[in-house]
Write a structure and sequence with these properties.
By secondary structure, this protein is an alpha/beta fold. It contains 14 helices and twelve strands. It has a four-stranded mixed sheet with strand order 3-4-1-5, with helices on one face. It has a four-stranded mixed sheet with strand order 2-6-8-7. Strands 9-11-12-10 form a four-stranded antiparallel sheet, with helices on both faces.
């Protein structure tokens, strides 16, 4: 159990990331490639990723170079997920490029201690060979471009849906309400947040006035994960809400049916209402229709890829996808 200790200053400085972090998603997606656990959640991505990595010629390098330094184990190096990546992929890669050789060597040594070995390429990386570090940066960028960029709109849509849930929690209960909203994944017992996290064991993390940055992750599975070095800016990466209902993977015929069924004043009104986030009950009351009817219309919109639905206890919150927002902002919308 990870026990995160908050002071009043920490509560004031706790934030929720605006969007998924590109390098945390990269590392978490590498973990999904290493195990069947959690694969059902990203089954279509997994199939496409293996196909596209093979087609791009990156499959062997991912297997022999990236996975050994980002193992799905109790320890993987913090340098792969620098705080600077909050500013985007380029900022994160620049931080990796600037990491002191001594720190890089130390973290790779910890990987070797846990896994029992490191490939020669990783040893060269730790020994400070410029070519090895350039190759690492190029491989990280190529992997991101090949398997994450095509999926980024979906990843962002799910994060936006989760953010809408967390925003409501903040409005009704402040930072404490935000932390309570993660139950049962985490348990808030002021002033301590109890987290069953990836890595296991009992650890106490004292934020010491630095606050906590909460980062949603599409590829993180079941349990949150934190940095191994508690002296770094504190973050907690958590799996996106288990109640998220994504657009169905429809075939061409079904997709045409869903889009055809979309036409109609009620669904158009629902789409406009969902722009600010709305629950099924709120939609029913606002449009003077039954909850069952509201549920049916939101299912059609979800199948058409225009909204994402997130369950929060006994409510379902609906938010727009990028496609839904684009439809509303178009001239016809």
């Amino acid at each position: 159990m990870l026990r995160i200790h908050f002071t009043d200053a920490d509560l004031a400085r706790t934030t929720l990331a605006d969007s998924p972090d590109p390098l945390w998603e990269l590392v978490m997606s590498l973990h999904r490639l290493q195990t069947r656990q959690g694969r059902a959640k990203v089954a279509d991505w997994h199939t496409a990723a293996r196909r596209d990595l093979a087609a791009s010629g990156l499959a062997a390098d991912v297997k022999n170079r990236l996975i050994p330094i980002a193992p799905r184990s109790r320890y993987f190096p913090d340098f792969l997920t620098p705080a600077e990546a909050a500013g985007g992929l380029d900022a994160g890669l620049d931080a990796i490029a600037a990491l002191p050789r001594r720190e890089l060597d130390h973290q790779l040594g910890r990987v070797a201690a846990h896994s029992g070995r490191l490939p020669g390429w990783a040893r060269a990386l730790g020994e400070g060979e410029p070519r090895a570090r350039r190759e690492l940066l190029g491989l990280l960028r190529g992997y991101h471009r090949t398997v994450l960029e095509p999926r980024w709109e979906r990843i962002t849509a799910d994060a936006d849906a989760d953010r809408a849930v967390r925003a409501r929690a903040v409005l009704s209960g402040g930072t404490a309400g935000l932390l309570r909203s993660f139950a049962p994944m985490m348990r808030w017992e002021p002033p301590v947040l109890h987290v069953a996290y990836i890595g296991g064991g009992d650890i106490d993390m004292h934020l010491q006035g630095r606050g906590l940055r909460l980062i949603p992750s599409y590829f993180c599975w079941l349990k949150p994960v934190a940095l191994a070095d508690h002296d770094l800016p504190p973050v907690l990466v958590y799996p996106l809400h288990n109640g998220v209902s994504r657009p169905s993977a429809l075939g061409p015929g079904r997709a045409e049916e869903a889009l055809g069924a979309l036409l109609g004043t009620t669904r158009a009104a629902i789409l406009f209402a969902v722009a600010d986030g709305a629950t099924t009950g709120e939609l029913a009351a606002r449009l003077s229709i039954s909850p069952a009817a509201a549920s049916h219309h939101t299912r059609v919109l979800r199948d058409a890829g225009l909204i994402v639905s997130t369950r929060e206890r006994n409510r379902v919150l609906h938010t727009l996808t990028g496609a839904g927002a684009g439809l509303l902002s178009s001239p016809s919308g």
